[in-house]
Amino acid sequence: MLLRRPLADSVEFMFVSFWDSMDAIGSYTRGNPEQPQYYPEDRAALLNLPDRVEHFEIVDLQSRW
């Protein structure tokens, strides 16, 4: 899921991904789930590259809008 929010002088994006488990994330990140995995072209497109990832658990999947 890709979220976008316009700001005064730029646009902020947030990428949300869904994983089966923290173990699955750990396998992808070679054991460090808090370490972001960037592609080489990300440096050209992003203003900053956060050095830490935040994880959340899904509590409710029901849409209520």
Please count the beta strands (DSSP E, at least 2 residues each).
2
Largest sheet properties: 2 strands, antiparallel
List segments where confidence is low: pLDDT < 50 over at least 5 consecutive residues. Answer: none
Strand percentage lies at 15-25%
Overall outline: flat
Give the averaged pLDDT, no decimals. 90
C-alpha-based Rg, rounded:
14 Å
Secondary-structure element series: EEHH
Summed up, the helix count is 2
* Helix/strand class: alpha+beta
Q: How much helix, percentage-wise, in residues?
A: 10-25%
Distance between the termini: 18 Å
- Identify the strand order in the major beta sheet: 1-2
Describe this structure in words.
With 65 residues, the protein is of the alpha+beta class. It has a domain at 16-54. 17% of the residues lie in helices and 15% in strands. It has two helices and two strands, in the order E-E-H-H. Strands 1-2 form a two-stranded antiparallel sheet. Strand 1 (2-6) and strand 2 form a beta hairpin. The chain is flat.
Short description:
The chain is built from 2 helices and 2 strands; from the N terminus they run E-E-H-H. With 65 residues, it is α+β, with helices and mostly antiparallel strands.
What's the layout of helices and strands?
Blueprint: E1 2-6, E2 11-15, H1 22-28, H2 42-45
Antiparallel strand pairs: 1-2
Pick out its properties.
single chain, 65 residues, alpha+beta, 2 helices
